[in-house]
Amino acid sequence: MKNFxxxxxxxxxxxxxxxxxxxxxxxxxxxxxCHLSPQEVWENKPYESITQLxxxxxxxKWRAIRxxxxxxxxxxxxxxxxxxxxxxxxxxxxxxxxxxxxxTHMELKTFFGIEKILSPETAREIYDECNEKLKTPxxxxxxxxxxxxxxxxGTTDDPASTLEYHQLLNDDESFKPIIAPTFRPNGALxxxxxxxxxxxxxxxxxxxxxxxxxxxxxSALKKRVNYFHEKGGRASDHDIQKMFYVETSKQEADxxxxxxxxxxxxxxxxxxxxxxxxxxxxxxxxAEKKWVMQLHMGAMRNNNTRMKxxxxxxxxxxxxxxxxxxEGLSRFLDTLDxxxxxxxxVLYNSNSxxxxxxxxxxxxxxxxxxxxxxxxxxxxxxNDHIDGMEKQMKDLANVGLLGHFIGMLTDxxxxxxxxxxxxxxxxxxxxxxxxVEEGKAPNDLNLLEQMVRNISYKNSEKFFLER
Length: 467
What we know:
Layout: H1 14-22, E1 29-31, H2 38-43, H3 50-54, H4 59-67, H5 81-91, H6 99-112, H7 123-133, H8 141-147, E2 150-154, H9 164-171, E3 178-180, H10 186-189, H11 196-207, H12 214-230, E4 235-240, H13 250-261, H14 268-289, E5 292-297, E6 299-300, H15 305-311, E7 319-320, H16 326-338, E8 344-349, H17 355-361, E9 374-376, H18 386-399, H19 419-437, H20 445-465
Parallel strand pairs: 1-2, 2-3, 4-5, 5-8, 8-9
Antiparallel strand pairs: 6-7
Helix pairs in contact: 1-19, 1-20, 11-12, 12-14, 13-14, 17-18, 18-19
């Protein structure tokens, strides 16, 4: 029987152990998609308690505490930091089998040297020990990043952002990791949202363009893409809840845009047409800059209207959607490819039923000299657990080239979340080790070590940065 979180955690074979200890454990981290605040990195924000560091903004954990039946006061309300941490400790014993159970204990062990199991009985002791350490400079954002050997971080940024903190960090020679902005134009795409007009005003102000037509919108967005590129941006990211594509002329898109800014309600067909047109035009901009386009598809957002009105978005009330991605995605990628303006693209799905769709789709669009131009992204959100990561990699391997996979990302708001890369790397090494034991892969350590090295770090570095 193994001990919990021992040195061979998730590693079932001698080959898996060798691959992890000889290669994966030593590699730096290329975290190409997350939701960290560059301002907090620049200011090297001190934390008053482990609650602020571990629980603040983490809707994964908030969701679990709610499912446990705990009141909102102890999650996002006015309860003390200690009371909120105690609520998490009360929830945690019921989470065995959930990656949050592993991640929480990995965070405590990796960053605070605490190997005790968090429970109601140990909560106060762990809380106090963490808080004492948080008083020192070694327990701030920059230290967490550097101790985790993170060399690249891709944040998620609105086109109307000034990117001032990215510039400050870039100019700071004492801080070596690259923190690059990622262009996320949700404000432009979600024309149906009540906030659309106010977002347009912000875009107009920062771009210096009066946005009153589809042409002026395109000009403003292109100006911001250029600005992001100047500040080190090399990727975009899109929240695609339903993947439809219909060919739409600029005249049609302009008519729809003008109808919306004049306060009229758009039909579903008009929304689909506008989304299709804008996404295609953005894809062209990304291809011109040789950026990576990321498509996060299929999440069902803001299911609980009452709680959305109370707390806002991104607070733990999203779930897996039931969508048909294949036809719309194929049409979208194909229309860009026909014009030779298809950028490097990463496809993520929230519903694992779409694994085969994405793993197969990526093989339809290729480019000489660009290994794995279209990527099937790592298990995302409701799939970033052991079974989900294994399934994603095995489904990719079954019909594609696992060796060109760009690997893991944190997709997190927490500076402790780099343990997720360790989690992924252990799972990767275990898959390969099991294949060797079963005679499904050769017992060639040089070959397998290079594969681990590429998937864990080198492929993503090349995919996002080399041109």
